[in-house]
# Entry
Amino acid sequence: MSAVIARKAAVAVSRPLPHQRARVLPTIVLLAGALYCLVPVAWVVVAATKSSAELFSTFTFAPGTGLLDNLRDLFAYGDGRFLVWAGNSALYAVVGSAVSTLISTLAGYGMAKYDFRGRSVLFYAILAGVLVPGMTLAIPQYLLMSETNLVGSHWSVLLPSLISPFGIYLARVYALSAVPDATLEAARIDGASEYRILGSIGLPMMVPGMVTIFMLQFVGTWNNFLLPFIMLSDESKFPITVGLYTLLAKGSSEPALYGIAIVGAAVSVIPLIALLLFLQRFWRLDLLSGGLKG
Amino acid sequence: MTGPDGARRGSRAPYLFVAPAVLLFLAFLAIPIGYALYLSLRGLRLTGGGIFGTRQEVFVGLDNYARTLADPDFLAGFGRLALYGLISVPLTLGPALLFALLLDYAGARGRRFARTAIFLPYAIPGVTASLLWGFMYLPSTSPFSYLTQELGLGEIPFLTGGGIYPSLANIAVWGGVGFNMIIIFTSLRGIPAELSDAARIDGASEWRIAWHVKIPLVAPALVLTGLFALIGTLQVYGEPTTLKPMTPEISGVWVPLMHIYTSAFSRDDLPLASAASVILAVGTLVVSVVLLKVTQKRAFGGMS
# Structure
């Protein structure tokens, strides 16, 4: 008896194992959250298998028989317009976030590791830029773009997404903590130029932060709606978000488009989920949670 | 320690590093803000008098601001936002904190799976999320209304009457809870294990540890997520616009950004749209700064 108590006490101190009941409820809550988040994804995958007749007649979670027809309709719609939209989304998101990450990293590194005239003005301007929602600028951006005849081109969506005050802010926070001054100073004493130091010391040290900034920017650009919606009028320049919206908006008078919108949503969601699952391990989101302390 | 004294040697280098960001900042943030301010003070007015008078763009002072602030539609948009935010912000942050604490709790099972599953909606664009939920709300395709109808309870009014607020808020909660959970969770992981262990040896329950040790220490992450949620609420646009074709409840001026869009592109009143944009941007800035100030005071008050 006393041996049992002693063992229990030992267990409790070394590694506190909660009671059975204390394990069940948290598990249930977590699984309920997971279920809530997965249901719409499951719904769209099932709905994508239904013919348009089945869509409005059978129980929504009963698989249908029209998957292949739906896919054919989707890729045939407007002479393969869906693939063009997907390509545009990829262009805006991949090119936009890659360039934006590089620009943010350079600026963050410069602001964290050098003292120069105007540095604090720049810092406060960036901070204000973080707090002013970019979307409120969409109208003046549109007007300026139309002055320069860029409205309607790929550039009109790509260029404004290159500047990310939040990305610069994060790059600065990361450079402050991940790039030691002593290392830079040692390289300077060895006679390396500032550009050489950036290329062979600064940038390699900032890679984990750059991956995080890239992913945040990628998801942000991929999910953007208002900016391309305002800037573009030619369907061949649309990203997927605006494309699906137009299908839905036309769908109220032309129900066949609902089916295409659903299949399109299912097809566009799957690669993004795969990408997220793959890149999840490279994120350094502690950069975000520690962001306010810095 | 010499400190960051690079200016001494390659004095041009830091300027070159920040130059691309500064140029883009000027071109796509500073100049548009300045242009919006300028436009917001202009307006089309009849000049010359009589039937031969021509409409000319002139300075009208704060007229557009007065018109915007007196516009019942614009103000009603903020009212709708407030109602929507009162539902969506607490329901995003509360569960995000709860899930993060549970992910950090050794007793819960299936944590890795739950973490990935709850984070998943972050990758899905708001427009696509609205499309998915929209169909799950639409009576003819909704699995929920299907069940209630089978039970003889009729349809659930997701898209009619006041039901539109929780329905829209749900889309924001679904899309936001996982991202906020991950931010809070990574912050929880940064707390030294000794703190919780010490409290546990003193006999504190897991609830007390969560409440008195963990939550105060992740306060900065909570402030950050709260700030994101607020800014996100003020610039809601894609979700109601996507649901608009499915319901008569949502008008073209339902939220402030929709109002701005309509003023600019349907009514061609760019000065009015600019004034409204400035009001929305300044409002967001003020709300953010106030939130940061208030929470900072709280956090320090709690520490001492």
Summary: Residues 58 and 64 of chain A are 8 Å apart (CA to CA). The domain at 75-289 of chain A is CATH 1.10.3720.10 (MetI-like fold). Chain A has a mean pLDDT of 85. Chain A has one domain: 75-289.
